[in-house]
């Protein structure tokens, strides 16, 4: 009988090994498929590179161009920049881009959100004679821009589905005959691809030498590889064909190499000068907080965050996972005294627009939105973007969080993470191309308690690392992160899952954790529930476990099963380390350290003045009247005469609003400065948004924002 036992034993071993081999084969096949995919991608990219190089050689590259040198339009450009736009100095690449456009070159601009792309075509539009055509994908973006230019006294119009007959007539006359003073014309891409009438008028304008430049904003919409593909953008190449000598400037905030090449091909600008700026947004402070499983606690925390740090009605966005959640969160924030309203795709257009408008005019502090609240957001002074749950990829998180601080002033990006939110997202994205991979990158960002958050973006966008300057929680706050060896737990989790599977059952992440706790009660495994959840997520990221999906009529459910590397853990070939915090980097400590001072009295008064003027001047946004940065300057310099004021905000704004501004500054009593609850605040220069920036000092890797409220 011993023989049978031996044979059975060997059979078992062989079956075990076979299973191993099969798993390995499956893993390799998976890998092969991914590599094939990448291979074809790379081949495509290589081909376009070669095409590009060839065309560059064919066109015998001109001598190295120095776009930062001096040009004949320098003085006029400086004058318009300062006296009309009220912009004291150029930001990175702006001047160079303007010079390239002015030299008649086609230009491709990749510049982060809020980098100041608009100026790059608006200023040349004023420097060159004639009318500049701007293509922009969304009505709301166009309206914002036209309103902004009008506020500066620049003749700008738009031709869209909402344009009335009279305006249309005026625009067509301007194009055809050069009547009127129109300088910047905004249209949606549909006008170019669908309206023959429009294109023929444009031809006449060009024929008379009056088409000064063509700007294609949000140019990533051209590419199917981009995130906001718009079919009508695909036809914009005809503009270069029809008007070969008019400079085209294409602008976007994010474009991978592949998207850039795609753009150049589709817009027919192979010889364009390319300006790529960093993805880094140095003024954004990134942080992730553990999210309580109790909904109310999360809302309390968000309300505390807003009411603790943003007492002057500073604008913010809260992103939620679903429409229902949006409404719920907005309602609960309101109940806690935060001025908030929801925004999602289920609302009718007018209701949505109303919410957007109230927010843009700073009458509503917080929009609680789904991802539907997206591309059309042009508000420069959004001070915080909170994610109530994680998004589906690093790319979308970069974009959504990037809506904060477009004016360059310090702003915060806070994400609430709990492992249980992962299956909610994964069951939505698993069918997308690389959907799970993208989500898991995002989860890695959230789970990490040590790595620089900014570094994760550099890695994601394949850019060299830059210093974070203590502008993320992991760099700024030292907290005790321990790496514990969770290999034992991991083994137990895998075995439990195998048992479940052998009984032909399956488990969601939460069920698995529940079962684990019940089963191992006596053994005294010391991990807490949320740490166990964290472990399961870690195991999924490490491919020890994997998610599987099954559909019902109403939903897709995510289950956890053993993954390709499960055996490695069982056989002791793979160790699992888990990052846990002991000394809490608790939410309150984060909130305290990043809490900023209240506005000074004068800041509040000037803020009120811009709101007042904004409603007086019908439809001009407060931030178009005075930017937060300008208010900061006014408070620290306190100009007394028109000449002094002009030096700070330029001629145009001084002419329009100077008297009122000087009046407010003149009437302001210095002792009114005492606005916060700490008397010592009064001893220094009043707090302004500008010097607030410089008050963020780096001290032993800890960012300190001096604040009266810290001393309570
Ligand atoms: N050189 C500058 N100095 C100070 N502020 C500037 C400068 N250039 C632009 N700005 C301001 O920065 C804000 C963002 O500019 P803009 O709207 O052009 O950004 P963008 O690059 O188009 O961003 P997005 O990708 O989000 O559309 C605006 O309020 C603008 O007035
Ligand atoms: Mg823009």
Automatic annotation (TrEMBL):
SUPFAM superfamilies: P-loop containing nucleoside triphosphate hydrolases (SSF52540). The keyword Isomerase applies. The keyword Coiled coil applies. Its cofactor is Mg(2+). Residues 596-675 form the HRDC domain. Residues 298-447 form the Helicase C-terminal domain. GO terms for molecular function: 3'-5' DNA helicase activity; ATP binding; ATP hydrolysis activity; DNA binding; four-way junction helicase activity; metal ion binding. It comes from the Eukaryota. Residues 664-678 have a biased composition (Basic and acidic residues). Residues 98-273 form the Helicase ATP-binding domain. Its main location: nucleus. Gene3D superfamilies: HRDC domain, P-loop containing nucleotide triphosphate hydrolases, Winged helix-like DNA-binding domain superfamily/Winged helix DNA-binding domain. Its EC number is 5.6.2.4. Residues 11-38 form a coiled coil. One of its GO terms (cellular component) is chromosome. It catalyses: Couples ATP hydrolysis with the unwinding of duplex DNA by translocating in the 3'-5' direction; ATP + H2O = ADP + phosphate + H(+). It is found in: Nucleus. GO terms for biological process: DNA replication; double-strand break repair via homologous recombination. This is ATP-dependent DNA helicase.
């Amino acid at each position: 009988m011993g023989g049978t036992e031996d044979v059975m034993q060997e059979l078992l071993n062989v079956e075990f090994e076979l299973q191993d081999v099969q798993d390995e084969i499956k893993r390799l096949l998976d890998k092969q498929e991914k590599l094939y995919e990448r291979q074809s991608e790379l081949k495509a990219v290589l081909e376009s590179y070669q095409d590009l190089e060839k065309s560059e050689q064919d066109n015998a590259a001109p001598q190295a161009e120095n776009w930062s040198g001096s040009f004949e339009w320098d003085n006029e450009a400086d004058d318009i920049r300062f006296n009309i736009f009220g912009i004291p100095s150029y930001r990175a690449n702006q001047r160079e881009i303007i010079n390239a456009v002015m030299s008649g070159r086609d230009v491709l601009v990749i510049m982060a959100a809020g980098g100041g792309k608009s100026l790059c075509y608006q200023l040349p539009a004023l420097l060159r004679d004639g009318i500049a055509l701007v293509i922009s994908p969304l009505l709301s973006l166009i309206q914002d821009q036209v309103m902004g230019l009008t506020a500066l006294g620049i003749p700008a119009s738009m031709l869209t589905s909402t344009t009335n007959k009279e305006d249309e007539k005026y625009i067509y006359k301007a194009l055809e005959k050069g009547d009127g003073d129109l300088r910047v014309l905004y249209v949606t891409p549909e006008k170019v691809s669908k309206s023959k009438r429009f294109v023929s008028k444009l031809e006449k304008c060009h024929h008379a030498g009056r088409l000064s430049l063509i700007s294609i904003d949000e140019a990533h919409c051209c590419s199917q590889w981009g995130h906001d593909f718009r079919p009508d953008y695909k036809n914009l190449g005809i503009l270069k064909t029809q008007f070969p000598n008019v400079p085209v400037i294409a602008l976007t905030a994010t474009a991978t190499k592949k998207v850039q090449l795609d753009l150049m091909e589709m817009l027919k600008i192979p010889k364009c000068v390319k300006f790529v700026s960093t993805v880094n947004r140095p003024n954004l402070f990134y942080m992730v907080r553990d999210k309580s499983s109790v909904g109310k606690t999360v809302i309390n925390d968000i309300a505390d965050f807003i009411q603790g740090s943003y007492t002057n009605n500073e604008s913010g966005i809260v992103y939620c996972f679903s429409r229902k959640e949006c409404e719920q969160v907005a309602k609960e924030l309101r109940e806690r005294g935060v001025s908030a309203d929801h925004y999602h795709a289920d609302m009718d257009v007018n209701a949505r627009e109303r919410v957007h408008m109230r927010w843009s005019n700073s009458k509503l502090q917080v929009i609680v939105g789904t991802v539907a609240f997206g591309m059309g957001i042009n508000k420069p002074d959004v001070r915080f973007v909170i994610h109530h749950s994680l998004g589906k990829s690093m790319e979308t998180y970069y974009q959504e969080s990037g809506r904060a601080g477009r004016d360059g002033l310090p702003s915060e990006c806070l994400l609430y993470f709990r492992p249980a939110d992962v299956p909610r997202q994964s069951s939505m994205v698993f069918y997308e191309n690389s959907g799970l991979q993208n989500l898991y990158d995002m989860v890695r960002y959230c789970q990490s308690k040590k790595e620089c958050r900014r570094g994760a973006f550099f890695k994601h966008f394949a850019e060299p690392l830059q210093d974070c300057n203590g502008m993320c929680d992991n760099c700024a706050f030292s907290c005790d992160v321990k790496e514990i060896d969770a290999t034992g737990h991991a083994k137990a989790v895998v075995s439990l899952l195998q048992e479940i599977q052998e009984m032909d059952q399956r488990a969601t992440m939460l069920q698995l954790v529940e079962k684990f706790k019940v089963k191992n009660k006596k053994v005294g495994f010391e991990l807490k529930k949320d740490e166990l959840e964290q472990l399961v997520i870690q195991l999924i990221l490490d491919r020890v476990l994997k998610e599987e999906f099954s559909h019902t009529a109403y939903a897709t459910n995510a289950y956890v099963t053993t993954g390709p590397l499960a055996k490695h853990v069982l056989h002791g070939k793979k160790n699992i380390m888990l990052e846990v915090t002991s000394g809490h980097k608790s939410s309150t400590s984060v909130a305290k350290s990043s809490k900023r001072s209240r506005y000074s009295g004068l800041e509040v008064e000037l803020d009120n003045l811009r709101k007042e003027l904004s409603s007086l001047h019908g439809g001009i946004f407060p931030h178009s009247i005075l930017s937060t940065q300008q208010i900061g300057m006014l408070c620290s310099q306190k100009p007394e005469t028109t000449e002094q004021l002009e030096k700070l905000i330029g001629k145009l704004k001084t002419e329009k609003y100077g008297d009122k501004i000087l009046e407010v500054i003149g009437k302001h009593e210095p002792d009114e400065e005492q606005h916060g609850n700490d008397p010592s605040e009064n001893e220094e220069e009043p707090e302004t948004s500008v010097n607030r920036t410089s008050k963020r000092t780096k001290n032993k890797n800890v960012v300190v924002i001096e604040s009266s409220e810290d001393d309570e």
